[in-house]
Amino acid sequence: MTPLDPDRILALSYVPARRRAAVEALWRLDAALGAALGGGSEPLIARIKLAWWCEALEKLDREKAPAEPTLQALAEHVVPTVSGADLAGLEEGWSVLTGQDPLSSDDLDLYAGRGRLLFRFSAALLGDGPGVEVERAGEVWALVDLARHSGAPDAASALDAARRRLPAAGKGRWPARLRPLGMLHALARRDAARGLQPMEPQGSPKRMARMLRHRFTGR
Predict the structure, then answer these.
(1) How far apart, in Å, do the first and last CA atoms of the chain sit?
(2) Which letter, b or e, does each residue of 123-155 get, where b requires 16 or more Cβ atoms within 10 Å of its Cβ?
(3) Which of 33, 142, 180, 190 is least surrounded by Cβ atoms within 10 Å, i.e. has the fewest?
(4) 121-176: per-residue pLDDT in tens?
(5) Cα–Cα distance measured from residue 136 to residue 159, given in angstroms and rounded to the nearest whole number
(6) What is the distance between the alpha carbons of residues 33 and 19, in angstroms, rounded to a whole number?
(7) For residue range 62-121, what is the model confidence (pLDDT) as tens digits?
């Protein structure tokens, strides 16, 4: 399976054991979709890889999962709650990055959908219903994640788009069951405030301390 970044690894450790396999499978799917764009792939090759994932995810609703670890984990732990067709929706956000031009505001809106869906599905797997503020928090997180992995000017544009969404994400206390997501959002807010010069390394002690504070306070 595709590895997760240090921030998500720590957040995952605070997911209740009975729900951890499902959330981990979902997050590793997201990482796998991102990996489909890496390795110096040409845009056409990246699009082919993403299309393969999209088709494979949709098939999980009607066929046995093939011998691919991420798909098998999704079939066992996630698809009973979130359909394969819904999971395939994550591909649209990632596909924005297969172009070669600087990202437009419309592109950033589409990419933010990656985080919106990821937080929506994660909340469902954590036993919570959909919530607008949680989904907006996911958009902020995804855009900050994009800024972390992009060069100028896309990184600056992504951070600006994330900051514009912060009010809609709310500042209230996160319920205990959703705090693994709240941890990621708290870090995204921190990154948005700090800006690009330089971005704080993932997994650093200060980030771990911020996540732990959110774990106990919900803020």
Answers:
(1) 32
(2) bbbbeeeeeeebbbbbbbbbbbbbbbebeeebb
(3) 190
(4) 999 999 988 789 999 999 999 999 999 999 889 999 999 999 999 999 987 899 99
(5) 14
(6) 22
(7) 999 999 999 999 999 999 999 999 999 999 999 999 987 899 999 999 999 999 999 999
